[in-house]
Predict the structure of Ribosomal RNA small subunit methyltransferase I.
Amino acid sequence: TPSLYIVATPIGNFDDLPQRAIDVLNQVDLIACEDTRHSGRLFAHFGINSKTVAVHDHNERQRAQWIIDQLSAGLSCALVSDAGTPLISDPGYHLVKQVREAGFEVSPIPGACAAIAALSASGLPSDRFSFEGFLPAKEKAKLDTLKGLAQDSRTLIFYESPRRVLATLSCMVESLGADREIVMARELTKTFETFLHGPVTEVLSRVEQDLDQQKGEIVLLIKGHQKQADELPQAAIETVVLLQQDLP
Ligand code: SAM
């Protein structure tokens, strides 16, 4: 049966496109691209000439039915986003859901993903983590989201735009405390790849002082909340408070 292939593309370095991705992109009848011009540069580099069609946030739901029609007609399709793995803070969820519901196979061609690449080299605990995508742009919503995550013991992973990184680091100081350990991974797989590591206030002042750190593509990783040895679980604290009320 015809399939939809979910193909990861590089997050910077074109050499990170796997051979199987090149083969599949060459073989399919149709490649759905987040941005056909953007992906066109990658395809040109590898001599990939398959037909392309735009599937982005604004037309994904309608285009999904059209792609199902193509699959029904016996054509095979691939989905790519501008960079990395489709659906990961990128379009594709509605397409995959609808194509599966229509009874067609969906098969991943795995490759780069900025969140996983950053985590793998960050030095932060990687046994349990939570990918949080982009924080809300508005200050209040951003702060509330971070406060809601402050007690989470897992490593937290965020995507961030360079325009907002200073504001976000300030919010992190406010919601997580100045000493929380973070890692800022920037320009992964590219010429100016950088990892900044340390307490969030330290990373903030380094980014404030160095305009270059406010450019490019950024992943922020937060070390999970560490329970202090003398810190009781919330339920235990509440029980103690109740008991104390009855004590003479
Ligand atoms: N689907 C992509 C993936 O699998 O990583 C993510 C797409 S999302 C729209 C773009 C964000 O990913 C950027 O704002 C940045 O936070 C992160 N990102 C992408 N490429 C990166 C890179 N080379 N270095 C650091 N972060 C990157």
Summary: Residues 11-12, 81, 83-85, 88-90, 113-115, 159-161, 185-190, 217-219 surround S-adenosylmethionine (CB under 6 Å). Strands lie at 3-7, 30-33, 51-54, 77-80, 105-109, 129-134, 155-160, 181-186, 194-199, 218-222. Residues 60-72 form the longest helix (13 residues).
